[in-house]
Specification:
The protein is an alpha/beta fold and about 240 residues long. It is built from 10 helices and 10 strands. The strands form 3 sheets. The chain has a 6-stranded mixed beta sheet with strand order 2-3-1-4-8-10. The chain has a two-stranded antiparallel sheet with strand order 5-9. Helix 1 packs across helix 7. The chain binds iron/sulfur cluster. The site of iron/sulfur cluster has 13 residues, from helix 1 and helix 5.
Amino acid sequence: MSSAVKEMPVVWLQGAACTGCSVSVLNAMNPSIKNLLVDEVLPGKHINLRFHPTVMAGSGAPVIEIMEDTSQQKKGAYILIVEGAIPTAKGGIHGVVGERDGKPVTILSRVEELAKDALAVIALGTCAAFGGIPAANPNPTQCLGVGDILQSRGVNTPLINIPGCPPHPDWFVGTVASVLLSGLPRTEDLDEYRRPKAFYGQLIHENCPRRAYYDEEKFAKKLGDPGCLYELGRILVKAGYN
Ligand code: SF4
């Protein structure tokens, strides 16, 4: 990699998650995950993924050291990506990432520590953005989304939510590429849920191939019928198929 290439260090944490968000990103097509990790994402800009629990080859104390060094040495210049919700019950002990002085370190404190000094935090997937499945009732581990954690701890680092279960890889790659190209999104680039409007600004409904049926109020009565599926969806929800 030439010295003219600007590297963006990235630390990726996984909390209460199924790893589906990672799998989705691994399936990215354009650019592919290889291009994303090895090549320049944009001319002169390269992602340096320093820590990812399931993708990195290393393990144990050396990789924890790399993660901790990133926050020490690259203050304000790295991106923290969080996949999965954050357990908060019992001091967060239901989710730990490595040890310090022989004691487990919770992902709750890792997120707080790493988010404080990051350029930006990306909450990837519905679990990280809003709690998702791990936060579903009765939520025994008291999982929360990253935004709630940062807010409760007074961390003001810019947060970008990329929900979806899993999110489409293009939404993630596009957001990272946009940060590399033009810096952090402006307030008006995000919606009320801190999602990039470029990817979340329109409903599927607005570009649905059956949209003309909706406008003409022609609704399908059963699966396989021509027509808009809106009413059929409501019938199925009423029947308990939600
Ligand atoms: Fe898995 Fe969905 Fe949560 Fe991602 S958002 S970690 S795919 S359950």
